[in-house]
Amino acid sequence: MINIAIDGPAGAGKSTAAKAAAAKLGFIYVDTGALYRAVGINALRRNIETTDVEGVISTLDGLSISIRFIDGTQHVYIGDEDVSVDIRLPEASMAASNVSKIPEVRAFLFDLQRNLAAENNCVMDGRDIGTVVLPDAQIKIFLTASPEIRAKRRYNELIEKGTPVDFDVLLAEIIQRDYNDSHREIAPLKPSEDGIVIDTSGMTIDETADIIVDLVNKL
Ligand code: DC
After folding, report:
1. Ligand 1 lined by 19 (C-beta under 6 Å)
2. Does the pLDDT of residue 92 top 90, yes or no?
3. pLDDT digits 0-9 by tens, 35-56
4. CA-CA distance, 34 to 14, in Å (whole number)?
5. Ligand 1 contact via 16 beta carbon (within 6 Å)
6. Is the C-beta atom of 155 inside 6 A of ligand 1?
7. Check whether domain 3-217 has CATH 3.40.50.12780, yes or no
8. Does residue 32 line the site of ligand 1, with CB under 6 A?
9. Which residue of 15, 32, 51 sits with most ligand 1 atoms within 8 Å of its CB, as the best mutation to test the pocket?
């Protein structure tokens, strides 16, 4: 199988570029952030603070999180419930960032990610795909962009979906999440040593996707 690992901070264009590249290549696209979001909203629904480590760990017992592809699009399930819309609610972002610091949560989601990559040609995006989940991926890319540009992209995305947001709040949250994600002890966000770093600040999604497709075609 061909596995492409795409990592980088929130809003670097990972998901859109990875999705576009996967479509051009005929690969599945796996968004691993969605899994951490599902663990996060599951805890919130049970009235457990996502900073309460023991509390979050207790929610993993008997929890079933899965991914199904419907018309080529990833849907995330908690049990039999499709939570693909709920995991995009603004509160799910910080919840995901909080639960992602917990080693037990990362271990809980590890096999699911590994198995998908073992069984499919895939473009998988996240924070630790090239460094931890798929260290043997044929291509590893780290996408980044300035915090302001990333906040602006998120802002446009949410406004397009009709979700009211404040740009400054979004920017502060992105800076806070970057800090959380790159300073945690386990699987911190960082480029893998054998990866390619691409700054997407001045690039369109299509240009970024084309770079990924070109790299695959050169394999
Ligand atoms: O990609 P995203 O914004 O949906 O991810 C939500 C959070 O999940 C992010 O702040 C960090 C965490 N995450 C992670 O720790 N490892 C991954 N492979 C993907 C996401």
Report:
1. no
2. yes
3. 999 999 999 999 999 999 999 9
4. 13
5. no
6. no
7. no
8. yes
9. 32
| DSSP output for the chain | --EEEEE-STTSSHHHHHHHHHHHHT-EEEETHHHHHHHHHHHHHTT--TT-HHHHHHHTTT--EEEEEETTEEEEEETTEE-TTGGGSHHHHHHHHHHTT-HHHHHHHHHHHHHHHHHS-EEEEESSIIIII-TT-SEEEEEE--HHHHHHHHHHHHHHTT----HHHHHHHHHHHHHHHHH-SSS-S---TT-EEEE-TT--HHHHHHHHHHHHHT-
Is residue 82's pLDDT more than 90? Answer: yes
Extents of the domains making up the chain: 3-217
How much is the pTM?
0.90
Q: Is 127 in the pocket of ligand 1 (CB under 6 A)?
A: yes
